């Protein structure tokens, strides 16, 4: 029987991601596994068409995004106080979501990725569906897609 020991949960802080985290925490509690909670912040595009932001403005915006993500991650973890005995290690990376999720999986020796089948709504929902699809194609570990 498959008993995961290292579970990766990518999050975009949506309700769907929250449900995936809950499922991962339940599995971790059952199998005494670690949970790696990951948020990937995509780099801000400096130039769009003929308009460019100066690099200090871009850096400031990216730093603010990371700070907001850290706060959201702490709030997300507080929602699940009933899983305090589960070891959760959180990380925020900058880059392309698929690339960073795969890197995290490889670096941490993850044997299960638990993620939502789709993200928030509209464009983000379709994008998260594309991310899930690419992770299914590229990941070496087992994947549990959670539908919310």
Descriptors:
47% helix; 148 residues; alpha/beta; Rossmann fold; two-stranded antiparallel sheet
Low-confidence stretches: 120-125
> What is the rounded Rg?
16 Å
The total of helices stands at 4
Q: Could you estimate the helical fraction of the residues in percent?
A: 40-55%
How would the blueprint of this fold be written?
Elements: E1 6-10, H1 15-31, E2 34-41, E3 47-48, E4 51-52, H2 55-78, E5 88-94, H3 97-108, E6 112-116, H4 122-138, E7 142-146
Parallel strand pairs: 1-2, 1-6, 2-5, 6-7
Antiparallel strand pairs: 3-4
Helix pairs in contact: 3-4
Provide a quick synopsis of the model.
The protein has 148 residues and is of the alpha/beta class. It has four helices and seven strands. It has a single domain, classed as HUPs (Rossmann fold), CATH 3.40.50.620.
Structure overview:
The chain is of the alpha/beta class. The protein has a single domain (6-146), classed as 3-Layer(aba) Sandwich (Rossmann fold), CATH 3.40.50.620. It is 47% helix and 23% strand. The chain has four helices and seven strands; from the N terminus they run E-H-E-E-E-H-E-H-E-H-E. It has helices at residues 15-31, 55-78, 97-108, 122-138; strands spanning 6-10, 34-41, 47-48, 51-52, 88-94, 112-116, 142-146. It has a five-stranded parallel sheet with strand order 5-2-1-6-7, with helices on both faces. Helix 1 links the parallel strand 1 (6-10) and strand 2 (34-41). Helix 3 (97-108) packs across helix 4. It is globular. The two termini are 26 Å apart.
């Amino acid at each position: 029987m498959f008993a995961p020991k290292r579970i990766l949960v990518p999050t975009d802080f949506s309700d769907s991601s929250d449900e995936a985290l809950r499922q991962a925490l339940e599995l971790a509690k059952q199998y005494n596994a670690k949970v790696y909670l990951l948020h990937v912040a995509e780099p801000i595009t400096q130039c769009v068409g003929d308009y460019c932001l100066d690099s200090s403005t871009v850096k400031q915006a990216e730093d603010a995004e990371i700070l907001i993500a850290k706060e959201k991650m702490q709030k997300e973890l507080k929602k699940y106080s009933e899983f305090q005995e589960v070891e959760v290690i959180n990380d925020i990376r900058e880059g392309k979501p698929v690339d960073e999720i795969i890197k995290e999986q490889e670096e941490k020796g993850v044997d299960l990725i638990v993620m939502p089948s789709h993200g928030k709504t509209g464009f983000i929902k379709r994008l998260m569906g594309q991310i899930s699809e690419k992770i299914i194609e590229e990941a070496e570990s087992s994947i549990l897609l959670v539908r919310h």
